[in-house]
């Protein structure tokens, strides 16, 4: 049982926990189910920007800590180091009954596993790419192929000064099927972000229809 | 002997300090159910029952925060706790009847009907 001792450790949590309930933005009572889309891409490619452009709540973030035994480190410095991995996410209610969550996941698949069930049951993956650094997307893609059969749509965040590429060239470079939807534009705009989500969900519908007619 | 409400077992070992996660969860690293995902919708059960006295501060804050519907990920973000830890607390609170899963169980993939509904919803933006 919690003892009546003083709480010298309770500094950070005391400051935070009481605010949690006050700041929470609950879903409408009509919402009865949830779905999710993973927004993946290399660091700095605009995942959080895209999520923020459509989210009905301010961007939220959850963190997990990985503890790794360090190799080749002076034991006097301690045998373990910890790394914090953050995931930004947002939410948008669609059709009144469904909450669509957008999880901005770190590019590397090994980090996804920090959030149990993150990839399970997702509608699909929005892969954000910067055409100036396409190679940054390769690792993400390899791991997507290896671990999931989720529908993928590509979003090219048009950074100023980035060379314009034909959609087909980008898909070829990424070694993705040429019927993969590709949306490009300035993702700070809500219209562009919604367009990207629509393209992915429409693609998921097509793939599922094809599956069920093949079965 | 007075009849006591069943006290939530796993909370017995809780200490009300922001110490390491495994202490907060009574030494357990995994929730009692594996159907929880970051987007699972949760809502406090409003039947006037109070948490047992031994319940920790985080469980109280969690229930307080979850008076309306929120996903597990949102709970974790608001409480500033790792989602893995929140999943353990949530599992216990569901088992003890204080918290309910609002969204349908964790099925493999969203069905085509649901996908089309989402698509329609997005078209209306």
TrEMBL record, chain A:
It holds the Pfam family ATP_bind_1. Keywords: GTP-binding, Hydrolase, Nucleotide-binding. InterPro entries: Gliding_Motility_GTPase, Gpn, P-loop_NTPase. Signal peptide: none annotated. It comes from the Bacteria. Belongs to the GPN-loop GTPase family. This is ATP/GTP-binding protein. The lineage of its organism: Bacteria, Bacillati, Actinomycetota, Actinomycetes, Micrococcales.
Automatic annotation (TrEMBL), chain B:
This is DUF742 domain-containing protein. It comes from Isoptericola cucumis. The lineage of its organism: Bacteria, Bacillati, Actinomycetota, Actinomycetes, Micrococcales. InterPro entries: DUF742. It holds the Pfam family DUF742. It comes from the Bacteria.
């Amino acid at each position: 049982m919690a003892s009546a001792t003083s709480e010298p450790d309770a500094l950070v949590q005391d400051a935070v926990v009481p605010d949690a309930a006050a700041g929470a933005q609950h879903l409408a009572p009509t919402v009865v189910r949830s779905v999710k889309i993973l927004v993946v891409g290399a660091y700095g490619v605009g995942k959080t920007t895209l999520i923020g452009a459509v989210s009905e709540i301010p961007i939220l973030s959850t963190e997990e800590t990985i503890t790794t035994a360090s190799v080749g480190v002076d034991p006097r410095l301690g045998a373990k180091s910890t790394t914090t991995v953050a995931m930004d996410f947002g939410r948008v209610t669609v059709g009144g009954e469904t909450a669509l969550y957008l999880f901005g996941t770190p590019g590397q698949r090994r980090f996804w596993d920090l959030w149990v069930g993150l990839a399970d049951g997702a509608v699909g993956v929005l892969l954000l790419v910067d055409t100036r650094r396409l190679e940054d997307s390769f690792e993400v893609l390899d791991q997507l192929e290896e671990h999931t059969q989720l529908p993928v749509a590509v979003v090219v965040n048009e950074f100023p000064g980035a060379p314009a590429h034909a959609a087909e060239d980008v898909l070829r470079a990424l070694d993705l099927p040429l019927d993969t939807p590709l949306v490009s534009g300035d993702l700070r705009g809500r219209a562009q972000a919604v367009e990207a989500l629509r393209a992915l969900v429409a693609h998921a519908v097509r793939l599922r229809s094809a599956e069920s007619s093949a079965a | 002997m007075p009849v006591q409400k069943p006290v939530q077992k796993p909370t017995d070992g809780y200490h009300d300090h922001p110490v390491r996660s495994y202490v907060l969860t009574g030494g357990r690293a995994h929730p009692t159910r594996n159907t929880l995902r970051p987007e699972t919708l949760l809502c406090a059960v409003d039947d006037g029952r109070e948490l047992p006295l031994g319940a920790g501060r985080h469980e109280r804050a969690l229930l307080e925060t979850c008076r309306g519907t929120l996903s597990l990920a949102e709970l974790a973000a608001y409480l500033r706790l790792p989602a893995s830890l929140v999943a353990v607390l949530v599992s216990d609170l569901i088992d003890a009847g204080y918290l309910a899963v609002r969204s349908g169980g964790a099925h493999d993939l969203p069905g085509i009907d649901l996908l089309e509904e989402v698509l329609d919803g997005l078209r209306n933006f």
